[in-house]
Amino acid sequence: MSIESKETLSLLAPVAGADMAGAGEGPEFGRTGLRITREGLRDGSMLARLRALAHPKLEIRSDAEIEASLDAMLAEHTSGSDAFVFGYGSLMWNPAFLFAAQQLGTLSGWHRRFCLGMPFGRGTPERPGLMMALDSGGSCHGMVFRISAAQARDELLLVWRREMAGTAYRARWVNVRTAQGVVRAVTFVINRAHPRYVGTLEERATADIIAHAAGPLGSCAAYLQQTMHALHALGVTDRSLERLAAEVARRKPSGRRAAAARRPRIRPSDPGSARACGCPRTE
Question: Which of 26, 116, 264, 275 fits a 20 to 30 Å CA distance from 97?
Answer without folding.
Answer: 116
